[in-house]
From TrEMBL:
Domain of life: Bacteria
Gene3D superfamilies: 2.40.128.270
PANTHER family: HEAT SHOCK PROTEIN HSLJ (PTHR35535:SF1)
Chain ranges of the DUF306 domain: 36-144
Record's protein name: META domain-containing protein
Organism for this UniProt entry: Hymenobacter segetis
UniProt cross-references to Pfam families, sorted A to Z: META
């Protein structure tokens, strides 16, 4: 009887897929992704002024890229833009007036909301792949998502 119990215990122990001390919290699947970097990340607006961004099929996806040298550049959907940004204190993010080309397209309303949100930006918060921009009264003006190029 003792021998069969011993063999059964060995059989069950040999079938375990993970060590007994490993829990769901320490499992690789349960790890939380690190926050994206503010600089040198392509940020795509997903929500502007509380509205989801739906880019027309014949327009370019808008994006923002903050360079390590303090340059802000991107595309509003119709036009490319460029300027500078300031982030002197933790959580602070302000933009200089942005220069851009002046072409019209079907997504000009999205572009106008995007550049307006950037102009109102006073602070930010990154959580995972999401960048939230806030105005001076801490009201969210934009939600952007990090898009990684392959």
């Amino acid at each position: 009887m003792r021998l069969s119990f011993f063999l059964l215990t060995l059989l069950v122990a040999g079938c375990q897929t993970r060590p007994p001390q490993e829990t769901a919290a320490s499992s690789p699947r349960a790890r939380v992704a690190p926050d994206a970097q503010l600089r040198e990340t392509r940020w795509v607006p997903r929500q502007l002024a509380g509205q989801l961004v739906a880019v027309p099929a014949d327009s370019q996806e808008p994006y923002l890229l903050l360079r390590a040298d303090g340059t802000a550049e991107g595309n509003g959907s119709c036009n490319r833009f460029r300027g500078t940004f300031f982030s002197e204190k933790p959580g602070e993010l302000k933009f200089s007036p942005l220069m851009s080309t002046r072409m019209a397209c079907a997504a000009i309303a999205i572009e106008n909301e995007f550049t307006k949100a950037l102009g109102q930006s006073n602070s930010y918060r990154i959580s995972g792949d999401t960048l939230l921009l806030f105005n001076a009264t801490s009201t969210p003006v934009a939600r952007l998502e990090a898009v990684y190029l392959r």
